[in-house]
Amino acid sequence: MASPITTHVLDTNLGKPAVGVAVVLFKLDADKQYQKIAAGETNKDGRIVDWMEGQQREAGIYRIEFATDPYFEKQGKSCFFPTVTFDFRIENPDEHYHVPLLVSAFGISTYRGS
Asked: Which residues are in the Transthyretin/hydroxyisourate hydrolase domain (predicted)?
């Protein structure tokens, strides 16, 4: 079963999934501190689909952090964005949230996927 929050990373320069990108998921707590709730590494399809196994999704603010520098270093490339971090809001915990990252060594984009 897929996690209630999923992600994938696409290397837009290569037009292929970004394999082996470390990703950490955080949730903002009542004290306005981000608590780590999951971590994983993108698979051969550039996806993480199982990182919240057994955890309930709650409404709130979440943060996702992608370690892009090591991914590009493996390719022998310099990367302008050593880490990509962004926050997103979950208002309806019953819905699935897919948060992808489109990345190249000098550009990033994201959106709420399905």
From this structure: 1-113
